[in-house]
Design a protein that fits this description.
The chain has 147 residues and is mostly helical. It contains 7 helices and no strands.
């Protein structure tokens, strides 16, 4: 893959704004393992190898299991995820696939299970990782191979 611009070097103010959004989510009270699941699921949908590499490692550091990470694309077909995680993952998928819009049923389920505040946090988490995915994919950020 060809080398592309490094936005952080060329426009550091843009990254500063993105990090401010990250900071909000980190301080919002959203469960850190749930946030990693949101980041992994959106990155899977978007095909962002860089973000998948980072966030699967981060999730494991927080105690996430390999099995749950492996089955995340098929989370609906398991009983591995709590009702809160399911609501957050469904909302994340629809925010990521926004061309189809966020369905009323998914939105209402999120409000019912997560409440207004946590739903807002999940929406912002999904929006943030989608923005990071688009930066990484567009600029060809490459994950490092670890042993």
């Amino acid at each position: 893959m060809e080398t592309r611009i490094n936005i952080n070097e060329i426009e550091p103010a843009a990254y500063k704004a993105m990090y401010a959004l990250e900071g909000y989510i980190q301080q919002s009270g959203l469960d850190k393992r749930l946030y990693e699941l949101i980041k992994i699921r959106a990155s899977q949908i978007n095909g962002c190898a860089y973000c998948l590499s980072i966030h699967t490692k981060d999730a494991r550091k927080l105690g996430e299991t390999e099995q749950r990470i492996y089955v995340l694309p098929a989370w609906r077909e398991t009983n591995f995820f709590s009702e809160e995680e399911q609501a957050a993952l469904a909302l994340t998928e629809e925010v990521t696939n926004i061309q189809s819009h966020v369905s009323t049923s998914t939105y209402k389920k999120a409000i019912e299970v997560l409440g207004d505040r946590r739903t807002a946090q999940v929406i912002m988490a999904a929006v943030t990782i989608n923005a990071w995915n688009r930066i990484a994919i567009t600029t060809h950020l490459m994950p490092e191979l670890t042993k």
